[in-house]
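Onboarding guide, step 5: your first structure request.
Type a short instruction followed by the sequence, for example:

Predict the 3D structure of this protein.
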Amino acid sequence: VVFVEIETEGESLDKGETFGTVEAVKTVSDLFMPVGGEVAEFNEALADDPELVNKDPYGEGWMIKIKVADAAELEDLMDADAYKAMIEAQIQQWIKQVPH
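The system replies with structure tokens like these:
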């Protein structure tokens, strides 16, 4: 990650709406709200050191803090272990589809 742009601080957005962008060496990708609510805070440290997102995503590399509008939406989120399992399952599916 070479640049993080978040200009939605203070705005209320729905789950799935774009709250910013992240730029890597060759691409720019949208960042999507995991739940609906207000973008309460942006991690200003990312302006000077966007690589924190890669170095410490669960600590100093956080992007935004959200005032959640509907706590029930939190039930749909995955923890790190569930996300890892989902990615590993997708990789296995792709491997099976590749001609050998």
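Each response can be followed by summary notes, for example: Helices lie at 45-48, 52-55, 80-97.
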